[in-house]
Write a structure and sequence with these properties.
Blueprint (H helix, E strand, L loop, with lengths): L1 E2 L14 H29 L3 E6 L12 H22 L3 E8 L3 H12 L1 H4 L6 E4 L10
Parallel strand pairs: 1-2, 2-3, 3-4
Helix pairs in contact: 1-2
Length: 140
């Protein structure tokens, strides 16, 4: 299962409206929560393990100037993935994150890596950066 909700916003904090803040967190925080919860329920009903890949952003790791709503929502998404990895590990579920800033084909290849048991069955709670060398995306 892959979760990839995509919105972007940019505004200095004093210009960020409550509506924009809530929109970012509803889509990028609550949206990923709902997908994750549904994925866990489906896997439980099927009695399976499996892989879940969340597509995030470098902003999950590094604050973006003028993007507090977006960056904090992406950080929430990343931490949710780590929580899901903790809960899913004992159930044979692998939950990982892909951070990207390149092309859709690059995202697809990274997701395929984590979705494939042959490639990453023993990986969970990881972040794979496919960023073309953007230093801000490096996990610290």
């Amino acid at each position: 299962m892959t979760a990839n909700a995509g919105i972007a916003s940019s505004a200095r904090i004093e210009e960020t409206t409550l509506a924009e803040w809530e929109r970012n967190h509803a889509i990028l925080g609550t949206g990923y929560f709902l997908v994750g919860r549904a994925g866990f329920r489906i896997a439980a009903a099927q009695g399976t393990g499996g892989s879940m890949v969340l597509v995030a952003s470098k902003n999950a790791l590094v604050a973006g100037k003028g993007a507090a709503a977006y960056s904090s929502a992406k950080a929430s998404e990343l931490h949710l993935a780590r929580c899901l990895a903790e809960e899913g590990g004992e159930l044979g579920r692998c939950i990982n994150v892909v951070n990207v800033n390149i092309l859709p084909e690059d995202i697809a290849q990274a997701v395929l890596h984590f979705a494939s048991p042959a490639r990453s069955a023993k990986s969970t709670g990881n972040v794979l950066n496919v960023d073309g060398g953007v230093p801000g995306a490096y996990p610290r």
